[in-house]
Amino acid sequence: MPEMNFENDVDLSTALAGFNHATTRAGEKMHFEKISAFYLGGGVVEHYPYLRDKAGKKIIDTEKTKPNAKFTTYKRDEKSDGFQVTLQTAGKDRLYMVFHVKEAPVFEIGSLYQVEGDGYGDGEIPTFLDANCKAIKIGQLQGVTPEVVAEG
To answer: Measured between alpha carbons, how far is 27 from 125 in angstroms, rounded to an integer?
Structure first.
């Protein structure tokens, strides 16, 4: 069983119980705090924001979006506005965070972070944070020994 080592005497149950229980309407930006998330790898990549029209709506990329397509592709700016990292939260697939900084932040694989920022989500756990983002490392997964847990 992997062992967790925490800074500041934080235990895993307390760290993962720190969900923000505010509610939000779809598309409304709100502040999230004390969200626990693991960094599982995948790298930190440059972020290119969507281009928007005068009304603030994302501009559809008509060359990449096919008629009757299930998904719409939007145009992005050619200039990066920071870096994006993907974290894993309990109860959600992924949390995307954009840090508006000039140098890429460093995240360690297997580390547990307490994150906060302004963005969008379903009310409890954010899915995208893009303003006032902060990530504090609070734990590190150590002593992982590969073992077969299922086969077939």
So the answer is: 14
Residue 74 CA to residue 81 CA, distance in Å, equals: 17
Handedness of CA 60, 127, 1, 3 (dihedral sign): positive
CA separation for the pair 130, 44 (Å, rounded): 14
Per-residue pLDDT of 32-83, as tens digits, reads: 999 999 999 989 999 999 999 999 999 999 888 888 878 889 999 999 999 9
> Beta partners for 88?
38
Within 8 A by CB and 6+ apart from 72, the residues are 60, 65
Q: Count the Cβ atoms, other than its own, within 10 Å of residue 143.
A: 9
126-145 per-position pLDDT tens digit: 899 999 999 999 988 776 66
In 10 A of CB 61, how many CB atoms? 14
3-state secondary structure (DSSP) of residue 114: strand
Task: Give the other-Cβ count within 10 Å of 150's Cβ.
Answer: 4
